[in-house]
C-alpha cells in the first residue's frame, strides 16, 4: 500500500479564493483529503488552510514554492518562476533563497512532507519555443527544421549553462539545513521549457552532490510529455534514469503542449507512466483552474483503476 493517499493541488482553485477554508471545502468535496498548497494562494487563504489542517479536516502533503503570495501580489502562472534560485546574480539568488525559506516555514507549520522547487532558468529567451511548436505542428517533430532548431537551442544552452547550474547548486546547499530542520524534502522538479534549470539529465548531478534524504526528484508528468512532444527527450528515458529517485509526482494530462488537463482528457499513456512511479511517492493531481468539477469527478475512477485513491 502506498504511504500517502492521492493529493490534490490548490492550483485548481487557490487563485480565485481568499477564504482558505473554502479552498479546502471545494477540494474535499471532490473526495480528496490531502493537498498540495500551491503558489497562487494568498496570505489570507493560508490562515484558513492552516486552521483546516489543525482541525484534522485535511492533510497537506506538499507546498509549491514560492508560497504564499507576497502582499499586493497578483496570482499568475509565473509564481513558481518569479525568482531564480539559479541566478548568477548573487542578490537575486539570495532573494530567491529567502523566499524559499519562507515556503519551507509554511510547509513546516502545515506538516508538509515536500517543497516542490522550480530551480530557475538560464538567460535564454523563450523565443525558440513558439517557433518550435509551429514547426512541429506544421512539419512534424522529426522534420529537418525541427531538428535544426533543437540543435541550435541545445548548443546555445550548453554554452552558457555552467554558472546557472552552479548557482542552483549553491542555493540547494544553503536551503538543505533548513529543509532538514523542518523535516521537508526539497523536490527538484523537471521543467516545461528547455532553457530552464534543470533538464532531466542534470538532476542526477544535483542529487549525487548533495547526497541527502532531504533532496529528491519531483516528476511532473505533463512537463515530461511536452519535452517529448517537442522532440527534446522521451518521457520513458526520463523515467528510466530517474524513477528510483522520485519522491513526488504531479499528475495531469496533456494534448501536445497544453498540460494540466484532467487525467483521461489528454493523450498521455497514464497507465504505463504510473506503473513506473514508486508506490510510496507523493502523488498530487495538479490541474488548471479551467478544468471543470465534472471532468475531475470523471477522472477519479480512472485514477482509482490505476491504484491511486484519494
Can you tag this structure with a few keywords?
single chain; 310 residues; alpha/beta; TIM Barrel; 11 helices
Write the layout of secondary structure elements.
Layout: E1 7-9, H1 20-28, E2 34-37, H2 43-54, E3 59-64, H3 90-110, E4 114-117, E5 120-121, H4 127-139, H5 144-160, H6 162-182, E6 185-189, E7 196-197, H7 203-210, E8 215-220, H8 221-229, H9 235-242, E9 246-251, E10 253-255, E11 258-261, H10 270-274, E12 282-285, H11 293-305
Parallel strand pairs: 1-2, 1-12, 2-3, 3-4, 4-6, 6-8, 8-9, 9-12
Antiparallel strand pairs: 5-7, 10-11
Helix pairs in contact: 1-2, 3-6, 4-5
Q: What's the CATH architecture?
A: Alpha-Beta Barrel
Q: Beta fraction of the residues?
A: 15-25%
The tally of beta strands, per DSSP, is 12
Tally of individual domains: 1
What's the CATH superfamily, by name?
Divalent-metal-dependent TIM barrel enzymes
Describe the overall structure:
The relative contact order is 0.14. Strand 2, helix 2 (43-54) and strand 3 form a beta-alpha-beta unit. The chain has 310 residues and is α/β, with parallel strands linked by helices. The mean pLDDT is 96. The strands form 3 sheets. An 8-stranded parallel beta barrel has the order 1-2-3-4-6-8-9-12, surrounded by 5 helices. Strands 5-7 form a two-stranded antiparallel ribbon. The protein has 11 helices and 12 strands.
Would you kindly provide a brief summary of this structure?
The protein is an alpha/beta fold. The chain has helices spanning 20-28, 43-54, 90-110, 127-139, 144-160, 162-182, 203-210, 221-229, 235-242, 270-274, 293-305; strands at residues 7-9, 34-37, 59-64, 114-117, 120-121, 185-189, 196-197, 215-220, 246-251, 253-255, 258-261, 282-285. The protein has one domain (7-122, 161-260, 275-305): Alpha-Beta Barrel (TIM Barrel), CATH 3.20.20.150.
Amino acid at each position: 500500500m502506498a504511504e500517502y493517499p492521492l493529493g490534490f493541488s490548490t492550483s485548481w482553485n487557490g487563485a480565485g479564493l481568499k477564504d482558505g477554508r473554502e479552498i479546502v471545502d471545494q477540494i474535499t468535496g471532490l473526495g480528496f483529503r490531502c493537498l498540495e498548497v500551491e503558489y497562487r494562494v494568498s496570505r489570507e487563504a493560508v490562515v484558513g488552510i492552516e486552521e483546516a489542517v489543525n482541525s484534522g479536516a485535511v492533510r497537506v502533503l506538499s507546498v509549491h514554492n514560492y508560497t504564499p503570495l507576497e502582499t499586493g501580489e497578483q496570482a499568475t502562472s509565473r509564481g513558481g518562476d518569479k525568482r531564480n534560485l539559479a541566478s548568477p546574480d548573487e542578490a537575486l539568488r539570495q532573494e530567491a533563497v529567502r523566499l524559499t525559506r519562507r515556503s519551507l516555514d509554511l510547509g513546516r507549520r502545515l506538516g508538509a512532507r515536500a517543497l516542490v522547487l522550480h530551480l530557475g532558468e538560464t538567460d535564454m529567451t523563450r523565443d525558440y519555443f513558439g517557433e518550435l511548436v509551429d514547426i512541429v505542428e506544421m512539419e512534424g517533430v522529426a522534420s529537418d527544421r525541427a531538428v535544426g532548431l533543437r540543435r541550435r537551442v541545445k548548443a546555445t544552452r550548453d554554452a552558457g549553462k555552467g554558472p546557472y547550474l552552479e548557482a542552483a547548486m549553491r542555493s540547494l546547499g544553503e536551503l538543505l539545513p533548513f529543509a532538514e530542520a523542518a523535516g521537508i524534502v526539497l523536490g527538484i522538479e523537471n521543467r516545461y521549457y528547455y532553457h530552464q534549470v534543470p533538464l532531466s539529465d542534470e538532476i542526477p548531478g544535483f542529487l549525487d552532490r548533495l547526497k541527502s534524504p532531504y533532496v529528491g526528484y519531483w516528476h511532473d508528468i505533463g512537463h515530461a510529455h511536452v519535452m517529448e512532444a517537442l522532440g527534446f527527450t522521451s518521457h520513458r528515458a526520463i523515467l528510466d534514469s530517474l524513477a528510483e529517485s522520485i519522491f513526488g509526482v504531479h499528475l495531469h494530462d496533456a494534448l501536445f503542449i497544453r498540460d494540466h488537463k484532467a487525467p483521461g482528457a489528454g493523450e498521455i499513456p497514464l497507465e504505463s507512466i504510473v506503473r513506473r512511479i514508486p508506490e510510496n511517492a507523493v502523488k498530487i493531481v495538479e490541474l488548471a483552474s479551467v478544468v471543470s468539477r465534472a471532468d475531475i469527478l470523471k477522472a477519479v475512477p480512472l485514477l482509482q483503476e490505476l491504484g491511486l485513491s484519494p
